[in-house]
Amino acid sequence: MELVAPSPEYHPSFRRALQEWDGAHQDGAGIRDAAELADRAGFERWVGQLLAEETVPASPAHVTCTYRWMVEGDEYLGSIALRHELNDFLRSYGGHVGYSVRPSARGRGLASAALAEVVRTAADRGMPEVVLTCDATNPASRRVIEHAGGRYERRVVDPDGHTLLHHWIRTGAHAQPDVTDVDVVGGPEPLTVGLHEYDPAWPTRYEEHRARIAHALDGQHVTIEHIGSTSVPGLAAKPIVDVAVAVPDVTDEAAYLTPLLEAGYELRVREPGHRLVRTAERDAHVHVYEHGAPELDHYLLLRDQLRRDDTDRQRYEDTKRALMEQSWDDTNAYADAKTGVIEDIRARARAATVRVRPVRSTDADAWQARYDGYRAFHRLPEDAEAVRTTWEWISTGAHGLSGLVAEDADGRLLGLANVRRFARPSSATTGLYLDDLFTAPHARGRGVATALLHEVAATAAAEGASVVRWITAADNATARAVYDRVAAATPWITYDMRPSAD
Predict the structure, then answer these.
(1) Max Cα separation, the chain?
(2) What is the helix (H) or strand (E) element at residue 424, kind and residue range?
(3) Is residue 432 within 8 Å of 469, Cβ to Cβ?
(4) Strands, DSSP E only, in 84-221?
(5) Which terminus, N or C, of the chain has the lesser number of Cβ atoms within 10 Å?
(6) Residues sharing a CB contact under 8 Å with residue 120, sequence separation 6 or more, in sequence order
């Protein structure tokens, strides 16, 4: 398969593809009136319009866009579109990329290959990230996005009532090289503010700054989080609200720094990967990073651990109170002095963290190692080829299979679950069948299986499935204790019949 610019030469094949679609919408194709494409002249006019949209939007309601077709020889297989910017509708519902593969060509990995190439095209255009959406009931499209490195962000409901899943992918592009030195505007400052008992008004102050920042950066893809000690109920803190903001490109200061300064914040720190602005009153600090920056995960990991663990919260407060008994000529030195206890708390949080997500192409080696363990647990013979084949099925969506993995805070795989959709004729609905569920021996007792089961249930709900079904051995008491907490055992008995022509 190759991606090519739209061309009239594919008209015969395109007409056959239209018959396969039978009037259904083709995302990323740019079709406004399919009836006009039946004759050669109309098709040529439409192709010319698609090519022109590279530099001129189709209408004031559209944006410039690069269209590419997936082809093999003279056969049209599908379309993919890269929108160069986002208007309000695309920012909420459509994203930068739309794609569709004709029904007869699905299941061959074409969408994954096309998306990978378009992400490279976006990087060449200087786009630091691309936003994508997919219908919550379309697990195949979600797998394509995740396979390309897409990170899930949120759910939205479009004007037609469809639930969409928002993702974004980093392309690696930047507007310009980042700074290489640390610039602290105004130089070091002594610590003059002491600890205050927790103030219930702090969350309200955060919300005020959140609204102020969101207004300043309106129209941009940003996320805003309350971090630091004022974000932890019950924790004594300096009365300075810390806010983390994630932007597409930290080097593109014109896009975010200028608006923040115009909103009344002042630049305090410029350093690689990070900018810090604050209020003139110095009662709020706004930390700016790129989407996906590890520092953001570190902040949230600490915050969430302190919110849920009374012991760690008290230990952190005791450490801060002890440090406050000293004199600090540089607030940064005070912050550095807390590093040891912060790292200890994060380490415990990482040890307890279990995150569930769809499989990615980069999981291949770790997933296959875990699946080897699954086969060994069930006393199946070693079979590297069977493991590789199963991975190919899971990672490409063959046979309707999809995979979930559980990982710790450092990204190590703790377990896996493999599911597939099946039809239920008696109820005229579909269900999800859980083929495999496995937790690595060292991770047992941490709720890995339960987390995977909850995500399978959430996936089933999002896809409109009526049930999640699986089997287990009658004498597997450990597994059944977990299953009994989340599902109901049935009275049915499973039979296996050997295939036979007789």
Answers:
(1) 89
(2) strand 413-424
(3) yes
(4) 97-101, 129-135, 151-157, 163-170, 183-184
(5) C
(6) 171
